């Protein structure tokens, strides 16, 4: 079950200092990934991993997804993806989304940030997914001449039509309450994106959400303004 409950009431110091309840966000256990490790954070098509940091304490290339299979559900046809890019000598990244017939739905190549951090990739409105299953890949291009040296993470998503009940539940609600509704509906993309947008104002909820899916190592990592299309 989803644990989305209001935190215990704090002593009331004054209504002007505290006028809303904190929401404690936890996502359903859908095969929790466990903390990302260097050996499991990303694939490679060869033994060459030289373009990514080898620092022991730095997180690996990882998608912000709720389970080790990198599977999640969304009720928006333009979902936003988040991923952590570690220190790298590479300058270009790539994202590909394909449908269940293996047709390319969206492709973008973009400039990587110069510092490590969490990036977001927004599927444009011109793509507009239809209900069904999709697979995606997020790649760091270590050497454009030898694409077998790419580092990558991949996964899948299911797009479902939002129900009338869901739309009524989120209507006119503040962001944290919307995030709680999304979590209860197992809609990872909406839950993460909603909390990410208010990360600075609600750091506790951001940390709790990531911790609930084994990504606490990324809770203090900065968001990076990215990614400029290089198509």
How is the topology of this model organized?
Elements: E1 5-6, E2 23-24, E3 43-44, E4 62-63, E5 71-74, E6 80-85, E7 92-99, E8 104-111, E9 117-122, E10 132-141, E11 151-159, H1 164-170, H2 175-184, H3 188-197, H4 203-212
Helix pairs in contact: 2-3
Brief summary:
This protein has 231 residues and is α+β, with helices and mostly antiparallel strands. It contains four helices and eleven strands; from the N terminus they run E-E-E-E-E-E-E-E-E-E-E-H-H-H-H.
Supply database-style keywords:
Immunoglobulin-like; 231 residues; 11 strands
Q: What is the CATH fold-level name?
A: Immunoglobulin-like
Radius of gyration: 18 Å
**Could you say how many structural domains there are in total?**
1
Low-confidence stretches: 1-21
N-end to C-end Cα span: 43 Å
Query: Major β-sheet, in short?
Result: 6 strands, mixed
Q: Helical content, roughly?
A: 10-25%
Class derived from helix and strand content: alpha+beta
Strand percentage, roughly?
Answer: 25-35%
The global form is: globular
User: What is the average per-residue confidence, as pLDDT, rounded to a whole number?
Assistant: 84
CATH architecture: Sandwich
Order of helices and strands: EEEEEEEEEEEHHHH
CATH class: Mainly Beta
Number of DSSP E strands? 11
SS element count, helices: 4
